[in-house]
Amino acid sequence: MVASRAGQLKLNIDGAFQETQKTGGWGFILRNSEGQGLLAGAGRLAFVHDADSAEARACQAALLAASVQGITEVGIETDSLILVSALKS
């Protein structure tokens, strides 16, 4: 998890990976500090290399959707330690 500050919006993201088919999906929800959902999205991935790639695509889609709405600062929560490390670097 990438920590968020009090009062900050938080993106929860997740990616799914089906190894035998090399397909997957992604989803996200943006919530305010009271936990109310503000923005959400989900989609399929016709080809994805691994679970971390699916998680990264979820993050990419979430950040793009937030930026289109004019949101420039969010906390991000993910279960991918590799993605957390990449985002912090």
TrEMBL record:
<dbReference type="InterPro" id="IPR044730">
    <property type="entry name" value="RNase_H-like_dom_plant"/>
</dbReference>
<dbReference type="InterPro" id="IPR036397">
    <property type="entry name" value="RNaseH_sf"/>
</dbReference>
<protein>
    <recommendedName>
        <fullName>RNase H type-1 domain-containing protein</fullName>
    </recommendedName>
</protein>
<dbReference type="GO" id="GO:0003676">
    <property type="term" value="F:nucleic acid binding"/>
</dbReference>
<dbReference type="Pfam" id="PF13456">
    <property type="entry name" value="RVT_3"/>
</dbReference>
<dbReference type="InterPro" id="IPR012337">
    <property type="entry name" value="RNaseH-like_sf"/>
</dbReference>
<dbReference type="GO" id="GO:0004523">
    <property type="term" value="F:RNA-DNA hybrid ribonuclease activity"/>
</dbReference>
<dbReference type="InterPro" id="IPR052929">
    <property type="entry name" value="RNase_H-like_EbsB-rel"/>
</dbReference>
<dbReference type="InterPro" id="IPR002156">
    <property type="entry name" value="RNaseH_domain"/>
</dbReference>
<feature type="domain" description="RNase H type-1">
    <location>
        <begin position="12"/>
        <end position="88"/>
    </location>
</feature>
